[in-house]
From TrEMBL:
Gene3D superfamilies assigned: OmpA-like domain
Organism of this sequence: Rhodovulum sulfidophilum
Keyword check for Transferase: no
Localization terms from the record: Cell outer membrane
Residues making up the signal peptide according to the UniProt record: 1-22
Name this protein carries in UniProt: Peptidoglycan-associated lipoprotein
Length: 167
């Protein structure tokens, strides 16, 4: 076997061995990612997974609206309670819109939706320095189709948590 073939086999073996360690991020041994990844366990009431799945990380809006529905305020009340109990987390509130309308209109609508959520959370006692807003308009759809069922899913504001900020 010549040197090139030997070198190629050695590099391939190293590359494969680097990809074979399932615990390379330390999740199985109490690493920073925890047993369920960076979001934690859905059964841990202090975890991001619990927030996303049990509390609910998003609220939906009616067509061309940025006012909060009664269903949205129920979810946001639970988000505010959770954020007030878990002060190590901050949140970025993402405002989204459906594909109808111009890009500029939907960016503005997404911003109004994100701000409506932020203002509501602040009114429920969450410190404003723990909340940021961003608008994506229609650029990041959750559902892709030209039907009302998809549009309804895309008219949303999502609270995305981050640890270690703003307490």
């Amino acid at each position: 076997m010549n040197r090139i073939a030997t070198s190629l086999l050695l590099v391939t073996a190293l590359a494969v061995s680097a990809c074979s360690n399932a615990d390379r991020f330390g999740s199985a041994n109490g690493g920073a990612a925890g047993a369920y990844g960076v979001n934690g366990s859905p059964s841990d009431p202090t975890s991001v997974a619990y927030f996303n799945q049990t509390i609910g990380d998003r609220v939906l809006f009616a067509v061309d609206q940025s006012s909060l529905s009664p269903d949205a305020t129920v979810t946001l009340d639970a988000q505010a309670d959770w954020l007030n109990q878990n002060t190590a987390y901050s949140a970025t509130i993402e405002g989204h819109a459906d594909e109808q309308g111009t890009r500029e209109y939907n960016l503005a609508l997404g911003a109004r939706r994100a701000n409506a959520v932020k203002e509501y959370l602040v009114s429920r006692g969450v410190s404003p320095n723990r909340l940021q807003t961003v608008t994506y308009g229609k650029e990041r759809p959750l559902a892709i189709c030209s039907a009302e069922s998809c549009y309804a899913k895309n008219r949303r504001a999502v609270s995305v948590l981050a640890a270690g900020a703003g307490a």
